[in-house]
Automatic annotation (TrEMBL):
Organism of origin: Vararia minispora EC-137
Lineage: Eukaryota, Fungi, Dikarya, Basidiomycota, Agaricomycotina
Protein name in the entry: Uncharacterized protein
Lineage: superkingdom: Eukaryota
Length: 264
């Protein structure tokens, strides 16, 4: 890989004001300099991609570069015969909070399910750990395609900590870890060939371990203390830089704006 500037650990600036603090309903993007510059990009023209006409590998590359940043589930699971497994998955998100559920999509590689999928099918249990900057190398190492009987834990240098409700251990170094039971697993079948190319795992969260030093005074996670890592395209990761807050508008404000805009 090309030489890049050194990593700066302490580069977070924290919370800033939003891009246009004075924005009101109906105000167009071209009303700010930044907005006008963004719209200039239109002059470069558009590329339209039809998945059915593309090689799957090109779809993979395009989608993982465009759907960013993605949170990463660092999944600890255990096989039916007790082999421990650890691997990162970025096709991951929260599904809902009541019941508290997460989703992880895992590819079947060359027609074969990955160890994580096989383990979750067999034991119906796993732990999703969130990765923080200080142990991204250890976490990345576990994405190695290791034989089934090999545990990535050894290569990673990470520490196992016993879970409370499930058999697979959590990652002790992770400041936010969710013990999950399998809620459902859905095979994602190709509409043309019928082949099950991926498994969508839905997990029901049974317990959450949160390290107290990453909490703010409201008892919630402070993103600048958690320092979580996300996935971008190719082999790129990203971290939380700045954060800004914009209140969700109430309908009273929207209704007023409709009158002002002459659309009421
Ligand atoms: C940051 C990162 C994110 C990844 N996300 C996914 C993913 O969402 N789905 C997937 O199938 N593989 C993903 N992979 C690849 C798996 O981690 C890799 O195939 C791993 O070896 C699977 O382990 P297992 O066979 O022990 O389950 C990702 C790899 C990295 C480094």
């Amino acid at each position: 890989m090309a030489a890049l500037p050194q990593y700066i650990f302490d580069s977070h600036t924290g919370f800033t004001a939003p891009p246009s603090p004075g924005w009101t309903f109906g105000e167009k993007v071209d009303e700010t300099g930044e907005g006008r510059a963004w719209l200039e990009g239109d002059k470069a023209g558009w590329k339209f991609v039809e998945p059915e006409k593309e090689a799957p590998v090109n779809m993979y590359k395009l989608l993982v570069s465009g759907i960013v940043p993605r949170p990463i589930a660092f999944v600890s699971s255990e096989s039916a015969i007790g082999v421990q497994n650890l691997a990162p998955f970025s096709w991951f998100n929260m599904v809902t909070f009541d019941p508290p559920t997460v989703s992880i999509s895992i590819l079947n590689s060359r027609g074969q399910q990955k160890d994580t999928t096989a383990n979750i099918r067999a034991t119906k249990q796993f732990v999703v750990n969130i990765i923080s900057e200080p142990f991204i190398h250890q976490a990345n190492a576990t994405s190695i395609e290791a034989p089934e009987q090999v545990s990535e834990w050894v290569l990673s240098g990470l520490t196992q900590e016993a879970s409370t409700f499930v058999k697979p251990p959590r990652v002790k170094e992770s400041a936010f870890a969710m013990e999950c039971e399998l809620y459902d697993i859905i095979d994602i079948k190709h509409p043309g060939t019928g082949a099950a190319n991926a498994a969508l795992v839905l997990g029901l969260i049974k317990g959450i371990h949160v390290r107290k030093d990453v909490l703010n005074d409201k008892g919630l996670v402070d993103p600048f203390k958690l320092r979580s890592v996300s996935r971008m395209g190719d082999v790129t990761y990203a971290r939380v830089g700045d954060a800004f807050r914009i209140a969700r508008p109430g309908w009273a404000e929207g209704e007023e704006a409709m009158v002002r805009l002459g659309k009421a």
